[in-house]
Amino acid sequence: MHRSRFVGILIDTPAAEAGAEVDFWSAALGVPAFPAPGEEQFTVLDRAVPDLFTVVQAVEDGPPRYHVDIETDDLEAEVARLTALGAERVSGWKEAHTLRTPAGHMLCVVPVHSDPETFARLARTWP
Fold this sequence. Notes:
This protein has 127 residues and is α+β, with helices and mostly antiparallel strands.
C-alpha cells in the first residue's frame, strides 16, 4: 500500500517572463511570494490555496501552461497506478516523474513535500 495526494498547482512560465508572472499572480491573489529555498526555478505564492502549494516555475522550454503535482510516499507505486489509469511517462527530473494524462495534460509525481501531519491528514491510501 502507498499514499498520495494532490499537492500543488504550478504555473509553468518561460524563465524570461517569470518575474513578471510572479508579480502578477502575487498581486492578483493578494499573497506574498518568495523563492523556494534551494530551488531557484520555483517561486512560492504563499498561502494562495490552503493545504496546496501554488508556485510559479521558470522553465527553459515549452509553452506557458499549468500542471499539477501529486506527492506520494512511494514514487514507483504511484507512477504505476497512474500509468495503469492511462497516463504515460514523459520524463524525469531529480526524484520527480513527469506524466501526461490521456487528454494531454501534464502532471508530476513527487516525493512528499508537505509536513507529515498535512500529508497524513489529506493523503489517500491505495492498494
